[in-house]
Design brief:
Chain lengths: 296, 178
């Protein structure tokens, strides 16, 4: 380390000038982030519902076309196949119109549906190759009824789903509101009691140093926390860049100012000690954190 | 940081409690502003970086998971924000006109004490690249390998940048004193 570097480090590590108050901007940023996340969630719910609509539609359309085929077969034993195909396809294209407004995923579902339907129709055509066109009217009537039914059902399903979507988003918002209110209440209740600073029984700790001079002069060459009556002891030392340089579970194994992984001497500067401990009369661990200034 | 940050406060920030977030901000704001100022040419930029940094801290605080010290973890986020900002301003394209002679004999100089104010005054006059490398190497304590990775430059470039940065700093220091 160069002399200038040392001066810069010593002076500027602790540089903490008066700062402008920018909390309002930060708060807005946090809220904007949260809002963006909520939109993503609602969008996924939305697209799931849309897929469900498509599936329902598929279940309605396929049986409908099969029914058309069988009924016309039974009643008249005659079908004009191209017309059936056309009408079913047209009902198909109608549903497609409704659905393509949504997402690309539905388009693929649609395509599958269509493929299935076309297969069905082909079968119908091959089965009825020999039939004549006597009862065109009846068939068309059936087809029309079926078509409108299907459309109605799809519309109905769609409406229901739209309602579900809006219900859900309402629920989301109201839940959030409630949660927020509760939180605010809780915080307000607790506000007077807590200050978020470190707590715990510190009566047994006699000295918890924050300066350390590992220069082999016989004074303070090891970092020692002076305490008595502990049944749990864990000290971790981190450097300025959050790298663990020392850890001990024994109060007699003390830090000598070297990095325990590399064995290299740690530079002068700011380090952090995180100390977890428990005394014999205690149930829970306590934690204390301190900055340690290493001076060589 | 005048106050120690308790695990309880961190937990409440993870839950997104606004009061706790504000308290963490208040505990750390001076320290973090110091970092932002160190990397910037002016207080306006520092303010922007600080805002971005805090928003990032609160959205990422779940990932902290007690990995070391929160203050150090936060500092890394702010440093990254500052570096991104400098990168946007293309510090790599800067060319240096600082004479190499300032690199030599530097340790013989009698600068035992410099105030934070003096250092900041000089920092704000330095080219972005010089200020950045002095910050990362001298103050933050990163190695040349780490700096090379952070800035997307080679280790050799990092070393020569640092030598030149020291020279440039001294030049400005002399101007200030004479």
């Amino acid at each position: 380390m160069n002399k200038l570097d040392n001066i810069l480090k010593q002076q500027m590590e602790t540089f903490a000038p008066d700062a402008p108050n920018i909390w309002a901007g930060i708060e807005q940023g946090i809220q904007a982030n949260a809002a963006a996340q909520t939109t993503i969630i609602t969008k996924t719910i939305g697209s799931k519902l849309v897929i469900t609509i498509a599936k329902i539609a598929a279940f309605v359309v396929i049986p409908a076309s099969v029914v058309v085929y069988f009924i016309s077969n039974e009643k008249n034993n005659i079908i004009e196949s191209p017309k059936v195909e056309n009408s079913i396809l047209s009902s198909n294209s109608n549903t497609e119109d409704i659905k393509t407004v949504e997402t690309p995923k539905i388009a693929s579902v649609n395509a599958e549906n269509k493929a299935i339907k076309i297969n069905e129709n082909k079968r119908a055509i091959s089965n009825n190759n020999s039939t004549s066109n006597t009862s065109e009217k009846t068939v068309n009537e059936f087809v029309n009824i079926n078509k409108t039914n299907t459309l109605e059902q799809i519309k109905k399903a769609k409406n229901e789903n739209v309602m579900i979507v809006s219900n859900e988003s309402n629920k989301d918002i109201s839940n959030e509101d409630i949660a927020e209110n509760k939180e605010v209440e809780m915080i307000e209740e607790n506000e007077s009691k807590e200050d978020f600073s470190n707590s715990g029984n510190e009566a047994g700790i006699r000295i918890f140093p924050n300066v350390f001079t590992p220069n082999n002069d016989g004074i303070d060459d090891k970092y020692v926390i002076d305490l008595e009556g502990e049944k749990f002891y864990n000290l971790k030392i981190y450097n300025y860049n959050n790298e663990l340089v020392f850890e001990s579970n024994d109060k007699n194994n003390n830090w000598d100012g070297t990095n325990y992984k590399t064995g290299q001497a740690c530079n002068s500067g700011t380090y952090y000690g995180i100390f977890q401990f428990k005394f014999y009369n205690e149930e829970k661990n306590s934690t204390r954190m301190t900055k340690i200034k290493v001076i060589r | 940081m005048s106050q120690n940050i308790s695990q309880e406060l961190i937990d409440k920030c993870i839950q997104g409690q606004a009061k706790a977030q504000k308290q963490l901000y208040e505990f750390t704001v001076r320290q973090m502003y110091g970092i932002c100022l160190r990397y910037c040419k002016n207080p306006e930029d520092a303010k922007d970086i600080m805002q971005e940094g805090y928003i990032r801290v609160f959205s990422k605080i779940k990932q902290f998971e007690g990995k070391g010290v929160l203050e150090a973890w936060m500092r890394r986020i702010f440093v990254n924000c500052a570096l991104e900002n400098i990168r946007v301003n293309k510090f790599n394209t800067e060319t240096s006109d600082i004479a190499e002679e300032y690199d030599l004999g530097f340790d013989n100089l009698t600068i035992d004490k410099m105030s934070q104010k003096e250092i900041m005054e000089i920092f704000q006059k330095l080219a972005n690249g010089y200020r950045t490398v002095l910050n990362l190497f001298a103050i933050e304590g990163y190695s040349h390998a780490e700096i090379a990775e952070m800035l997307g430059i080679s280790e050799g470039t990092s070393k020569s940048q640092l030598a030149r940065a020291r020279g440039a700093f001294l030049k400005e220091y002399n101007k200030l004193k004479n």
